[in-house]
Specification:
The structure holds 2 protein chains of 2 kinds. Chain A is α/β, with parallel strands linked by helices. Chain A is built from 14 helices and 8 strands. Helix content of chain A is 36%, strand content 13%. The chains are: A alpha/beta, B alpha+beta.
Chain lengths: 323, 339
Amino acid sequence: MQEAIISKAKQLLADGTVNRVIGWKKGEFAYDITPAIFESAEEIDADFVYDDFTSANVSKYLVKESKKEGKVLAFLKPCDTYSLNQLTKEHRVKRENIYVVGIPSDGKLDAEKIKAKGITGITGVEKDGDTLKISTIYGEETMPVAEAMSNKCLSCKSKKHVTYDELIGEDGEVIDSNRFGMVEELENMTSQERYDFWRNELSKCIRCNACRNVCPACTCENCVFDNPDSGVQNKAAADSFEENMFHIIRAFHVAGRCTDCGECSRVCPQNIPLHLLNRKFIKDINSLYGEYQAGADTTSRAPLNDYTQDDCEASIVHERGVE
Amino acid sequence: MLKISLENLGKLFDAVAEKQTLYIPTDREDGAAEYRKYESGMKLSKNLNTLRSAKDFFFPQTENLADFKMEGKKIEVIDIREESEDFVVFGVRACDARSFTILDKVFLSEPVDSYYKNRRDHGTIVTMACTKPAETCFCGTFGIDPTAPEGDAACWSDGENLFIQANNEKGQAFIDSVVALLEDGDTAKLDEVKVKTKEILGKLPLANLSTEAFGGDTLMEHFKSEKWAELSESCLGCGTCTFVCPTCQCYDIKDFNTGHEIKRFRCWDSCMYSDFTKMAHGNIRNSQLERFRQRFMHKLVYFPSNNNGEFGCVGCGRCLSKCPISMNIVKVMKALEVK
């Protein structure tokens, strides 16, 4: 796949369709891949990579990139195309300045999950069927591929590209995912258990803002939490209430716009399952306003921005609050 | 050298915890290690290092500095400082142990930061030598030997026994306080472990990373480098690298109005943040490129320039593991050293 992508990139650069490419650059190890812009065939040949660790969603970079001179080529995985569509819908990107080549993804790996097995000194990682072969300075190690899969890929919602100018390979289908399973588990808890679950998770937060900064739905020019004039700026949580509220407010802000790309939880250095907050909103929107997938198209009205007579009444909050 | 069998480590911890607060790295549910206050039965983590660094003990993420009460035009300043209690941090790795030397240069030089000093005076650092370094380790680049860690007292494990040796008076006092549990031990096997670890250190992928191209006299060359644009291009501007870093020491001081008093607090700042060093006149670093450059220039050029050549990084590798886009000091060094 990497070969096909590289030759496509070089072709589109050579024929002038685009003047630069956004993709992934290989790192020092097998897994530390950085999103990067490539401007020439030489740069692409030297460093471009598309493999099991290229999980970063490059859509958000297109907010900036699409406003620059010339067209940019973006290689997007199915989940990434939902993010781009949503950004297009919100007029955050100039879609006409982006040439999208849809590329398939059979699921990405998470190096942290390999390390969590106690495997260290990693020098190479290779898939062999369902087994992951990891070479380390301490010798060869193996583990099941499934156990090293990135969480966001374990609950993949779609193999379908919802926007593209060209595809490499066959397009897939929306899949019946298990993504609401953990949300249901949380819903089935007592309110005290649920409160304890979230207090335990959110108390780990170090306010690095990685979740917000990576989020394709978080594109405010100046976040209220970064603005010293807002009165609510906080680099440090003054108390546990603030610690919780940052994430809850953020989840509210992206409700109905979050495509469930899973980047928030992928980047969290403290492994907080932040995507579950967003998924709860998605699940609620589905049940209260009808099935809706943010980013699936660029024209439909979003349930939370639209009024219909069938909308649920505010009393739903009270009704659901009763245990 | 004095030793205790690893089976009896719990007894050692219990004895220490009886006299003062003890913190040890322990595994949490998600497998990551973090320092926690020791309670009987708590197991020492087998992980190489903690997710967050040990700097939190002396330079916490947030702390109150003073309170103000206002009545009309009268302002009462309340000094809320309290003498810290004695505590022990056990199991600190050589990289983190060196980070205290770096933080000391900042906080203990004039004017001395009394909040930091208070904690340093009351804390005893007991380090633990490494036997299984990770691919992300590069402490050797900064002259740190992970088989001979600094700290008040240092420990080594040969797989069966824990050996302990004092590096200073504070460390000796720690050993004296638990000496009843220790016995003299033969270090033959431990010496073999050390030799083996050193062999591994030589095989690490970053073993040859050099600081040669950096230091105080390289300021303008690196500051003006055209490479910063590309290096900082995909930086998200989050604070992950700075907050997991054992040596990042920038902070912000703010006043918080509780409604009936003012709390002046200090919290970690990050040069990656848009309001970093924002002052009355505005901001001196308006782009992510400038802020990104600041982080690495600080560690590789400004810090050594002000501190007799000592670099502001200890090669712990946390930023290599945790940066959401995998951009880090190693990639920056390798890019900048190419002329």
